[in-house]
Amino acid sequence: NMLARVTKGLKRNNRHKTLKCDITGAFNQSRLSSRKVDHVLVNDPPSHVQMYKFTAVEDSHPNFHGFNLTLLGTRSGSPSRSRNVSSALVSLENYNILVDCGESTQRQILYTKKPKKIRKILITHMHGDHLFGLPGVIMSIFKRDKQVNYTKKLDIYGPPGIRDYIISALGVNLPSGFMNELTVHELSLKDEWISPKSRTIRMANKEPTLIMEDKKYKIWAAPLKHSVTCFGYVIEERDVPGRILKEKLESAGYPPGELYGQIQRGIIETLPNGEPAKDYMAATKKGRKIVILGDTSDSQYIESKAMHCDILVHENTFTEETEAFAAQYGHSTTRSAAKFAQKIHAKNLVLTHFSGVNEEEEFKPLVLGVAKSNFSGNIFYGTDFLSLDLPFVDRD
Fold first, then answer.
1. Which residues pair with 75 in a beta bridge?
2. Residues β-bridged to residue 67
3. Long-range Cβ pairs for the range 269-273 (8 Å, 24+)
4. Under DSSP, is residue 22 helix (H, G, I), strand (E, B) or coil?
5. Positions in the chain short of pLDDT 50
6. Which helix (H) or strand (E) holds 264?
7. DSSP 8-state secondary structure symbol assigned to residue 361
8. Quick one: pLDDT at residue 240?
């Protein structure tokens, strides 16, 4: 029996898969990899799902649409032969966001070919399987930027104590000028001690708090119920106005000029001929949304901002047979994860953070069966390097 388990483990290790799913268009059976992938999609794929083999997450890839999630680690506690501990990479148009950073994350990132583009790191909580890889990743980012004199700044968000951990872990390895380019934002729920050199973000009444925004994206944080202070994050893209319809404007007698820019910027609502300016613009593109939760047994405080998300990444540490341990240690079961996904009307649920028990092959049918019976959307049994790409969907 032991020999059979070892043999099975070796076979799994030799099947290094990197999969990518494009959440748009019509399901295209011909684009499936010749390698069987029934361990990924559980429900029958609806009309808006495509699957295809993928080898690396690069913005030069023809199917990269500026909003991508790649799992870098999917195991809880400690790594196994086939899974690293918790980490996920969200790739945007101009930069990447790393969510959690368990040990060996630096090596996992190399497979994505985008280590230079990480500009923000979100840490959910201070447990080692979500944190111990952070010092190496930080040094790697700044080492690669050294040739350009640290022109790219790095922002790290996390619970109180994250800055002191970084300083203590790096110690004498801190290069000159390093901390001038690193900004640590500590999220405070109450009167916790915050490093005076950190930027403190006070969380308002446990409701989702906006912790970062720029011209294209917003990041929200909200507390989760766990054995230590823990957060979930919502990475949300702003809606993108449609482009002006130049040919239609020209046909109506409006040649290219200043008017086009005024219509695009929303300055003009009505054209000289009395027609609404919006009739000469393509449909607004709805902003995309990814929700990534840390360890949790109750995620009620993030619900309002997580509603109707495109992807929910939810921990699945315990099965229903060990439900008592889930409540005791502040974790979720398959059923609770699926029910939360259903409650917030998530389009896709990605299960991750598996323990040494429920990552075994024989537990997959049980886990996925429970999830399918409690959630009507797409279900993904998370594996390292599973990649989901989110193209724009025009608003109706």
1. 85, 354
2. 92
3. none
4. strand
5. 1-60, 148-150, 395-396
6. helix 258-264
7. G
8. 86
Q: What is the pLDDT of residue 115?
A: 56
CB 344 within 8 A of CB 358: no
Question: 304-332, pLDDT tens digit by residue?
Answer: 999 999 999 999 998 877 777 788 889 99
Any catalytic annotation for residue 100?
Answer: no
Distance, in Å, from the CA atom of 288 to the CA atom of 77, rounded to the nearest integer, reads 31
Annotated active-site residue in 22, 59, 100, 129:
129
* Paired tokens of 293: 């939760």
pLDDT of 238: 95
b (16+ CB within 10 A) / e for 218-239: bbbbbbbbbeebbbbbbbbbee
3-state secondary structure of 147: helix
Lookup: tokens for 249? 């404007």
Instruction: State the CB neighbour count (10 A cutoff) for residue 113.
Output: 14
Place of tokens 């350009």: 148
Q: What are phi and psi of 234, to 5 degrees?
A: -115, 115
**pLDDT, position 144:** 65
The per-residue pLDDT for 122 is 98
**Beta 154-158 vs 182-188: how paired, if at all?**
parallel
What is the pTM assigned to this prediction? 0.80
